[in-house]
Design goal:
- The protein folds into 2 domains: about 230 residues, 3-Layer(aba) Sandwich (Aspartate Aminotransferase, domain 2); about 90 residues, Aspartate Aminotransferase, domain 1 (Alpha-Beta Complex), CATH 3.90.1150.10.
- Helix 1 crosses helix 11, helix 3 crosses helix 10 and helix 12 runs parallel beside helix 14.
- The protein is of the alpha/beta class.
- The chain is built from 14 helices and 13 strands.
- Helices cover about 40% and strands about 15% of the residues.
- The relative contact order is 0.17.
- Strands 2-8-7-6-5-3-4 form a 7-stranded mixed β-sheet, with helices on both faces.
- The chain binds pyridoxal-5'-phosphate (PLP).
Length: about 350
């Protein structure tokens, strides 16, 4: 089966498992797990930031960041396709008591100008606008990358307006590798960054939240409250270290393959359009009258798993566990769909 449903489905390689089994561990709630400490140091340095904290999931990193950066009653600005809004179970309302102002952007991306017009004035009737969240790459936006200048301009506006700035970087390495921007650049603008080890990088579990010492100190408390204080988590951290050392550069392969798939999908008679492929995610829209469910079944019968994204949209995601021969098979399958 060629499983394109998500880049979260990868299983650890033998080398990663070896690294996990050889990890030195301790109690991470006591901050005594050498592997977790090494991962946190490594990631903080990578992004030119002071500190970092290992968490069980990207959702928890985002939710901790929102909790630390806001007060109940505040408003958070994010894109209309944002994971923090659509796919975290209403967590920002439940955990932090905040509301969201959704910006309609280009595939999940918006600009400093878009933000400027929705920052609430200091008026008792209005929620206090305290945080901007961006998602790079944008998942629901089909893996779209934010331009570096745009991210920088938003950072400057946040600083000027007293708002905090959080990056949901579940797929930040896809963006960084593709655009050639150094991680330290992101560290300069954002007050907090969440990166996921368990997506394109192929670790079984884990995300890291990055920020300055004071932010991470508060984040550590919130992580405990959310039930995310793990004990001998070094086995998982070792997988993350292995992933960062060995699986970042290869993301380019996923991007190249996704672009090839996108080009073929675009010419299929039942495909209306394909969102421009920038990284490892391809979102394509079936023409009206073509059932997404039937398409998913048709693909499944050909040993290909894809998922629907609402309406006529279908998504495929390239990742570490899609082999060369699976990619070639998929290309052949698509060619027969003409
Ligand atoms: C953009 C984005 N942010 C956050 C997450 C949440 O990550 P997790 O599944 O580890 O909670 C995901 C998961 O797919 C995602 O795509």
């Amino acid at each position: 089966m060629i499983d394109f449903r998500s880049d979260t489905i990868t299983k650890p390689t033998q080398e990663m498992l070896d690294a996990m089994m050889n990890a030195s561990v301790g109690d991470d709630v006591f901050m005594e797990d050498p592997s977790v400490n090494a991962l946190e140091d490594k990631v903080a340095k990578m992004f030119g930031q002071e500190s970092a904290i290992f968490c069980p999931s990207g959702t928890m990193c985002n939710q901790i960041a929102i909790k630390v950066h806001t007060h109940p009653g505040d408003e958070v600005i994010c894109g209309d396709l944002a994971h923090v809004y659509h796919y975290e179970g209403g967590g920002m309302a439940m955990n932090s008591g905040v509301t969201a102002k959704l910006l309609k952007g280009d595939r999940g991306r918006f600009t400093a100008n878009d933000i400027q017009s929705v920052i609430n004035p200091d008026d008792v009737h209005k929620p206090h606008t305290s945080l901007v969240c961006v998602e790079d790459t944008s998942n629901k936006g089909g893996g779209a990358i934010w331009s570096h200048n745009n991210l920088k301009a938003i950072g400057e506006l946040c600083q000027k307006s007293g708002m905090k700035y959080h990056l949901d970087g579940a797929r930040a390495f896809n963006a960084l590798i593709e655009s050639g921007v150094a991680p330290e650049e992101y560290g300069k603008y954002f007050d907090s960054i969440s990166i996921c080890l368990s997506k394109g990088l192929g670790a079984p579990v884990g995300s890291v939240l990055i920020g300055d010492v004071s932010f991470i100190h508060q984040a550590r408390r919130v992580r405990k409250v959310f039930g995310g204080g793990m004990r001998q988590a070094g086995f998982l951290a070792a997988a993350g270290i292995y992933a960062l050392d060995n699986h970042v550069d290869r993301l380019k392969i996923d991007h190249q393959r996704a672009k090839q798939a996108g080009a073929l999908l675009e010419s299929l008679p039942y495909v209306e359009r394909v969102l421009g492929v920038e990284t490892n995610i391809v979102i394509y829209y079936l023409k009206e009258g073509h059932s997404v469910q039937a398409h998913i079944e048709n693909m499944k019968n050909k040993n290909v798993l894809v998922i629907g994204m609402g309406g006529q949209a279908v998504r495929i995601v390239y990742h570490l566990d899609v082999t060369d021969s699976q990619h070639n098979n998929y290309m052949d399958i698509l060619k027969k769909e003409f």
